[in-house]
Amino acid sequence: MTIGIATDHGGIELKQQLQKYLEDKGYTVRDFGAYTYDAQDDFPDFVIPLARAVGAGEVDRGVAVCGSGVGASIAANKIKNVRACLINETYSARQGVEHDDMNMICLGGRVIGIALATELLDNFVEAEYQALPRQLRRMGKVAALEE
Predict the structure, then answer these.
(1) 38, 63 contact by CB (below 8 A)
(2) Is the per-residue pLDDT at 147 higher than 90?
(3) b (16+ CB within 10 A) / e for 14-39
Protein backbone atom coordinates (compact mmCIF):
# COMPACT_ATOMS: atom_id res chain seq x y z
CA MET A 1 0.00 0.00 0.00
CA THR A 2 1.24 3.47 -0.88
CA ILE A 3 0.24 6.20 1.54
CA GLY A 4 0.55 9.90 0.79
CA ILE A 5 1.25 12.29 3.64
CA ALA A 6 1.18 16.08 3.90
CA THR A 7 1.21 18.86 6.45
CA ASP A 8 1.73 22.54 7.01
CA HIS A 9 3.73 24.07 9.85
CA GLY A 10 1.01 23.12 12.35
CA GLY A 11 1.74 19.42 12.02
CA ILE A 12 5.33 19.11 10.84
CA GLU A 13 6.55 17.18 13.87
CA LEU A 14 3.60 14.76 13.89
CA LYS A 15 3.91 14.21 10.12
CA GLN A 16 7.59 13.33 10.45
CA GLN A 17 6.83 10.87 13.26
CA LEU A 18 3.95 9.28 11.33
CA GLN A 19 6.00 8.98 8.16
CA LYS A 20 8.74 7.10 10.01
CA TYR A 21 6.11 4.94 11.75
CA LEU A 22 4.52 3.97 8.43
CA GLU A 23 7.85 3.28 6.75
CA ASP A 24 8.97 1.14 9.69
CA LYS A 25 5.77 -0.90 9.22
CA GLY A 26 6.67 -1.50 5.58
CA TYR A 27 4.39 0.99 3.84
CA THR A 28 5.58 3.05 0.91
CA VAL A 29 5.12 6.70 1.84
CA ARG A 30 4.94 9.55 -0.66
CA ASP A 31 5.70 12.84 1.06
CA PHE A 32 3.87 15.92 -0.27
CA GLY A 33 5.54 18.31 2.21
CA ALA A 34 6.01 20.46 4.09
CA TYR A 35 9.55 19.31 4.54
CA THR A 36 10.68 21.96 7.01
CA TYR A 37 8.99 24.26 9.48
CA ASP A 38 7.82 27.55 7.97
CA ALA A 39 5.31 29.47 10.08
CA GLN A 40 4.11 31.30 6.95
CA ASP A 41 3.15 28.27 4.86
CA ASP A 42 -0.47 27.41 4.02
CA PHE A 43 -2.06 23.97 4.41
CA PRO A 44 -3.80 23.99 0.99
CA ASP A 45 -0.39 24.15 -0.72
CA PHE A 46 0.40 20.67 0.62
CA VAL A 47 -2.99 19.09 1.28
CA ILE A 48 -4.46 19.77 -2.17
CA PRO A 49 -1.65 17.98 -4.10
CA LEU A 50 -2.04 15.04 -1.71
CA ALA A 51 -5.82 15.02 -2.17
CA ARG A 52 -5.43 15.14 -5.95
CA ALA A 53 -3.14 12.11 -5.78
CA VAL A 54 -5.67 10.26 -3.60
CA GLY A 55 -8.56 11.21 -5.89
CA ALA A 56 -6.64 10.09 -8.99
CA GLY A 57 -5.62 6.79 -7.39
CA GLU A 58 -1.91 7.65 -7.47
CA VAL A 59 -1.71 6.76 -3.76
CA ASP A 60 -3.97 4.29 -1.97
CA ARG A 61 -4.70 6.42 1.09
CA GLY A 62 -3.85 9.88 2.34
CA VAL A 63 -2.82 11.29 5.71
CA ALA A 64 -3.16 15.06 6.10
CA VAL A 65 -2.01 16.93 9.17
CA CYS A 66 -2.49 20.58 10.06
CA GLY A 67 -2.81 22.35 13.39
CA SER A 68 -6.33 21.11 14.14
CA GLY A 69 -6.99 18.86 11.13
CA VAL A 70 -10.07 20.92 10.26
CA GLY A 71 -8.55 22.98 7.45
CA ALA A 72 -6.97 19.90 5.90
CA SER A 73 -10.34 18.14 5.94
CA ILE A 74 -12.17 21.06 4.37
CA ALA A 75 -9.58 21.48 1.62
CA ALA A 76 -9.28 17.78 0.82
CA ASN A 77 -13.01 17.29 0.40
CA LYS A 78 -13.08 19.84 -2.43
CA ILE A 79 -11.27 17.31 -4.63
CA LYS A 80 -13.25 14.77 -6.64
CA ASN A 81 -13.13 11.17 -5.34
CA VAL A 82 -11.73 12.22 -1.98
CA ARG A 83 -13.53 11.26 1.20
CA ALA A 84 -11.53 12.90 3.98
CA CYS A 85 -12.46 13.15 7.64
CA LEU A 86 -11.00 14.68 10.75
CA ILE A 87 -10.57 11.73 13.10
CA ASN A 88 -9.85 11.82 16.83
CA GLU A 89 -10.92 8.32 17.96
CA THR A 90 -10.40 4.78 16.73
CA TYR A 91 -13.97 3.73 15.96
CA SER A 92 -14.37 6.32 13.22
CA ALA A 93 -10.87 5.69 11.88
CA ARG A 94 -11.90 2.11 11.05
CA GLN A 95 -15.63 2.52 10.44
CA GLY A 96 -15.06 5.48 8.12
CA VAL A 97 -13.19 3.18 5.76
CA GLU A 98 -15.41 0.12 6.23
CA HIS A 99 -18.75 1.89 5.73
CA ASP A 100 -18.00 5.18 3.97
CA ASP A 101 -14.93 4.34 1.87
CA MET A 102 -12.91 7.09 3.57
CA ASN A 103 -9.62 7.36 1.73
CA MET A 104 -8.00 10.23 3.57
CA ILE A 105 -7.57 10.79 7.30
CA CYS A 106 -7.00 14.26 8.73
CA LEU A 107 -5.26 14.76 12.05
CA GLY A 108 -4.51 17.74 14.26
CA GLY A 109 -0.82 18.16 14.97
CA ARG A 110 -1.58 20.52 17.84
CA VAL A 111 -4.43 18.41 19.19
CA ILE A 112 -3.27 14.80 19.47
CA GLY A 113 0.00 13.10 20.35
CA ILE A 114 1.92 10.39 18.58
CA ALA A 115 0.46 7.50 20.62
CA LEU A 116 -3.12 8.28 19.62
CA ALA A 117 -2.10 9.24 16.09
CA THR A 118 -0.45 5.87 15.45
CA GLU A 119 -3.47 4.04 16.85
CA LEU A 120 -5.75 6.03 14.54
CA LEU A 121 -3.45 5.38 11.61
CA ASP A 122 -3.37 1.63 12.26
CA ASN A 123 -7.16 1.49 12.30
CA PHE A 124 -7.36 3.59 9.12
CA VAL A 125 -4.82 1.71 7.00
CA GLU A 126 -5.83 -1.77 8.16
CA ALA A 127 -9.53 -1.28 7.43
CA GLU A 128 -11.14 -2.26 4.14
CA TYR A 129 -14.29 -0.91 2.52
CA GLN A 130 -17.02 -3.53 2.92
CA ALA A 131 -18.95 -2.43 -0.19
CA LEU A 132 -22.25 -3.83 1.05
CA PRO A 133 -25.28 -2.93 -1.10
CA ARG A 134 -26.51 -0.25 1.32
CA GLN A 135 -23.02 1.29 1.49
CA LEU A 136 -22.66 1.30 -2.28
CA ARG A 137 -26.08 2.96 -2.58
CA ARG A 138 -25.17 5.63 -0.04
CA MET A 139 -21.74 6.33 -1.47
CA GLY A 140 -23.26 6.51 -4.97
CA LYS A 141 -25.46 9.34 -3.73
CA VAL A 142 -22.42 11.10 -2.31
CA ALA A 143 -20.42 10.62 -5.54
CA ALA A 144 -23.32 12.07 -7.56
CA LEU A 145 -22.80 15.36 -5.72
CA GLU A 146 -19.40 15.69 -7.43
CA GLU A 147 -20.95 15.67 -10.92
Answers:
(1) no
(2) no
(3) bbebbbebbeeeebebebbbbeeeee
Using CA atoms, how far residue 133 sits from 64, 114, 122, 139, 140, in Å, is 29, 36, 26, 10, 10
- The answer to whether residue 106 is catalytic is no
One-letter identity of residue 116: L
- What's the chain's average pLDDT? 97
Q: What's the longest Cα–Cα distance across the chain?
A: 46
Q: How far apart are CA 131 and CA 11, in angstroms?
A: 32
* Tens of pLDDT, residues 6-49: 999 999 999 999 999 999 999 999 999 999 999 999 999 999 99
Which among 9, 66, 85, 106 is annotated as catalytic? 66
pTM: 0.96
Its sign, for the CA torsion 123, 129, 133, 136, is positive
Which is catalytic among the residues 9, 85, 99, 106?
A: 99
Q: Is 9 a catalytic residue?
A: no
Calpha distance 8→49 (Å, rounded): 12
- What are the tens digits of pLDDT across the range 62-82? 999 999 999 999 999 999 999
